[in-house]
Automatic annotation (TrEMBL):
Entry's family note: Belongs to the GppA/Ppx family.
Ppx/GppA phosphatase C-terminal domain segment(s): 320-486
Protein name per its UniProtKB record: Exopolyphosphatase
Top-level taxon of origin: Bacteria
SUPFAM superfamilies, per database record: Actin-like ATPase domain, HD-domain/PDEase-like
UniProt domain Ppx/GppA phosphatase N-terminal: residue ranges: 20-300
Pfam families in UniProt: Ppx-GppA, Ppx-GppA_III
Length: 508
């Protein structure tokens, strides 16, 4: 039996919706209702009551469409732009109470995650295109998200607060006062790209670029009907750029059939893409009409047990954590050893901890990034790890999960205070217990490479009534690891109610 589900994304300028058949990812219906959330936020930092009314009306219209199709399952997500407003929490509560729909909050890293799932699943010949270095650029009204792929694999993601509507609002005073408005805007955009250039991996080359996002109204008119993307090159985009910078608003509206309310974003959008093409020396450019809402459908299909595409979403999450670890120069041998032991302990002690696949992933992510604080200072590095993780983008994790990973990293060290579940008032009791259990497992795993020399080659776990015994096969003496585990294992005993000890023998 086909399962149809509704999806809604509240963006900065539109409420997008789709009805998707999860088994095949075929869309039964899709559309959008314009709203002016971004104009309110970027101009006054407040969402006005009139705009709230428009959002509610748009959602009620979507609800009617869903009802007409007999849809009783829906996912409603607010983009990060929606939550930038100073009164966002009040607006969220008003919208929820007036529509009856719960609105999930998407972080920047989640939005990037959904977009990559959309292109993995729906972009034509994605694997072939991304064999060469490729940057996926999603342009929304308030921000630009850049996600890099090499050899078909996710590389890194960066977010810039440089969306065209935000740029237009910032530069609106300049437009009326300077004759060389385009040059000033170009310099403004270039100044915001400085940090992005600095963070690019050395020696990287990205000849391919995929453009997508809610702010590409003009560019999407170039896509043939029924297709999801169209290819061009630098020369083709140069022609479009020179046409736009010399065109009047009325010409753009008439030629590209754009509402006058969107024309103001055309110049900053095209100028921004033009400068990014120059920065990355891109040679081939694809313009796509895929959006975050498409990734929501892909993600839900996978979570519902359907396999419409050969896609493992956890790979992106793990790669994102690995990239963060590399950025802060974590010792890869110790990191990978800790990850291996942590996952082995998790798998072999399932009947003790009772946790599932998602918690296993959180443990893996925590093990990858737990030592990044040493980049700042090895003294109390666990505290530095915590705030770096919370301030970073870990693709695919929601806000609570990212906070959980940060807290696990904080408590992985025996030098940190013993975890007090009362210190985490914003977490549910269940999540606090998960944090404690994963922290205990990570402490043990970290202990097994206390010397940072990877002495232990493999472990065997035996579970007795009152203790867990780790039988290690090692290539050298493991007294330091045994002593470290005796200290760090006290927390494991406190959490699980059983002692843990290490026995080692030299490999022949």
């Amino acid at each position: 039996m086909a399962i149809n589900q509704g999806f809604v994304v509240i963006g900065a300028q539109s409420v997008f919706f789709s009805i998707t058949e999860l088994k095949t990812l075929a869309d039964l219906e899709r559309g959008q209702f314009p709203v002016a959330i971004g104009e309110d936020i970027f101009a006054t930092h407040q969402i006005s009551p009139e705009t709230v009314d428009n959002v509610v009306q748009a959602l009620q219209n979507v609800a009617q469409v869903f009802q007409d199709y007999g849809i009783d399952r829906q996912t409603v997500v607010g983009s990060h732009s929606f939550f930038e407003a100073d009164n966002a929490q009040f607006v969220w509560d008003q919208v929820v109470s007036r529509t009856g729909w719960q609105i999930q909050r998407a972080t920047l890293s989640q939005e990037a995650f959904y977009r990559t799932q959309a292109v993995f699943a729906r972009f034509p010949d994605f694997a072939k295109v991304t064999k060469a270095g490729t940057v996926l650029i999603d342009i929304s009204s308030g921000s630009v998200e850049l996600t890099a792929f090499t050899n078909g694999e996710f590389g890194f993601s960066r977010n810039l607060s440089l969306g065209p509507l935000r740029v237009f609002e910032v530069m609106s005073d300049v437009q009326a006062s300077v004759p060389n408005y385009v040059e000033v805007m170009r310099d403004f955009i270039d100044s915001r790209l400085v940090d992005f250039r600095r963070l690019l991996p050395r020696g990287s080359h990205y000849p391919h670029m995929i453009l997508m996002g809610s702010a590409l109204s003009l560019l999407e008119t170039l896509i043939p009907v029924g297709q999801t993307a169209v290819e061009t090159d630098r020369d083709g985009f140069d022609l479009l750029y020179h046409e736009v910078i010399h065109a009047s608003d009325q010409y753009l509206a008439d030629t590209y059939e754009l509402p006058l309310t969107q024309v103001s974003q055309v110049l900053p959008t095209v100028l921004m893409v033009y400068r990014l093409i120059k920065t990355l020396t891109a040679e081939k450019i694809w313009i796509s009409n895929l959006k975050m809402i498409d990734g929501l459908a892909v993600n839900q299909a996978l979570e519902s047990g359907y396999k419409p595409v050969a896609l493992d979403p956890t790979k992106e999450i793990i790669m994102s954590a690995t990239n963060l670890s590399d950025r802060y120069q974590v010792d890869p041998k110790h990191r990978d050893t800790t990850v291996t032991f942590a996952l082995q302990l998790f798998d072999r002690l399932r009947n003790l901890h009772g946790l599932g696949k998602r918690e296993r992933l959180l443990l893996q992510v925590a093990a990858l990034v737990t030592d990044i604080g040493s980049f700042v200072d090895t003294h109390k590095h666990y505290e530095h790890s915590e705030y770096i993780i919370q301030a970073s983008e870990l693709m695919g994790l929601d806000t609570i999960e990212q906070q959980m990973v940060a807290t696990i990293a904080r408590f992985h060290s025996s030098d940190s205070p013993q975890i007090d579940l009362g210190d985490l008032p914003l977490m549910s009791t269940q999540r606090r217990l998960v944090i404690a259990k994963l922290s205990a497992l990570l402490r043990v795993a970290d202990s097994l490479d206390a010397s940072r020399q990877q002495k232990i080659q493999k472990i065997r776990v035996s579970q007795k009534d009152d203790r867990i015994v780790l039988h290690a096969t090692a290539n050298d003496d493991v007294e330091l690891e045994r002593w470290t585990l005796a200290r760090k294992g006290r927390f494991f005993t406190a959490v699980f109610g059983v002692a843990i000890e290490l026995k080692g023998r030299l490999s022949v």
